Amino acid sequence: MFKEIKEVTVISIGETGVGKSENGNALLKKKDAFYISDLIGSCTSEINLKSNIINGIKVNYIDTQGLSSTNDFNEKYIFQFVNFLKNCKSGINAFFIILDIQNPRFDSRIQRMLKLINDIFNNPKYWNQVGIIFTRCYKECFNRKIGENNYKISIINFIHKLPGCENINPSIPCFFVDSKKWETDRSTQSEYGKIVKFASILQP
Questions:
Q1: What is the rounded CA–CA span in Å between residue 41 and residue 47?
Q2: 35, 61, 92, 182: which sits with the fewest CB atoms below 10 Å from its CB?
Q3: What are 65-76's pLDDT values in tens digits?
Q4: From CA 43, how far away is CA 198, in angstroms rounded?
Q5: pTM for the complete prediction?
Q6: 6-13 sheet: strands from edge to edge
Q7: DSSP structure string for 21-64
């Protein structure tokens, strides 16, 4: 009898150029799962899902378009995003807000995305399944405390202003990775292990 493989699905949202696709390659431990480029601008033109088996868990990573590449959050993007979620048979275990630690911005596009997600799920408990991944955490060139204290608190304060979320207390765990060095950087490898573990204990 075959042992059933546990399945975990995560989705990333964030500005253009913060490293969502590169983060997906690192999380999945596959160099070519998603196309990446060193050019300025978005490489992802549509929502895309790739998978890999990691430590006996099937991990699905959903890569989304960079928000500034969507003509200020147009209807086509919203329709594609909502439709994709509705047709995702495995459900979503965790949502990750991707921020570049070297230039972190919690701007109006991400805020509008969080409002949309809150409307889609219409359940304050959903926010317990959200985390932040800070990319480009180069060794000795980033401040973990600033990420956790400044940006995490800003996001939680914003969530409290959303309908039905006034009295919730989401943890919003933070993870710090250098996606380019996922094969050699032990700290980054440890963080990706924590990311998969966080997602795997949540019901989709």
A1: 16
A2: 35
A3: 877 654 545 677
A4: 28
A5: 0.88
A6: 48-54, 57-63, 6-13, 94-100, 130-135, 174-176
A7: HHHHHHHHT-TTSS---SSSS----S-EEEEEEETTEEEEEEE-
